[in-house]
Amino acid sequence: MRETSGLHLAELRRRILGNFELLQALVSIRLRGVEDPESRRHLNWLSDVVAALTLINRRLAASGMSDVGGYLIESVGFWRRVCEGREISFALDSSLIEIPEELASVLALVLHELVAEAVANAFPDGRRGRIAISLSATYGVLELIVSDDGVAGDRAEATEGLALARGLAEHLGGAFERRRENGVTTVVRAPIDPTAAVARPERPH
Length: 205
Known about the structure:
Elements: H1 2-32, H2 37-63, H3 68-82, E1 88-94, E2 96-97, H4 101-121, E3 129-138, E4 141-148, H5 160-171, E5 175-180, E6 184-191, E7 199-200
Parallel strand pairs: 1-3
Antiparallel strand pairs: 2-7, 3-4, 4-6, 5-6
């Protein structure tokens, strides 16, 4: 019975992944015919969000586990490609951490919004910089930190993406803290079942 249930779940994950990939293709096709800047901005945002969800669901479909550490490695690869041609480097500090699927998807969206904001606003006029991402799980708390050494200015104020990230953190019953520290640092904490998260030694990345 467990084996049958596992097969059904794996098939469901593959179908969900297929739907995300189809949605991403549809958004890309729609973008080709849109010229209005505001409409393109929203569609580009949607395309990036779907890409983030596709990454996490591809990992789920492949392994059946919400290995967030592994997802972060893939996500950093995605942002390096996005920033190709710009002098922006990325650093990642994370162990392998397995968490519930629903938490992994929300965390993927939060990470996307935080990195997207830094990429868009921290390094104006071709400025060189660094974005650091860390993830840890201790004593029933999952902590995600995204920091950059770019300009701070009024970036600590609310934007659409930051409002979404804050709202998602609150949805998880967690905390959202944003501060200026030689750039901007954002800390997101969310409660997790201590028995559900498994931290293992770091993998090379």
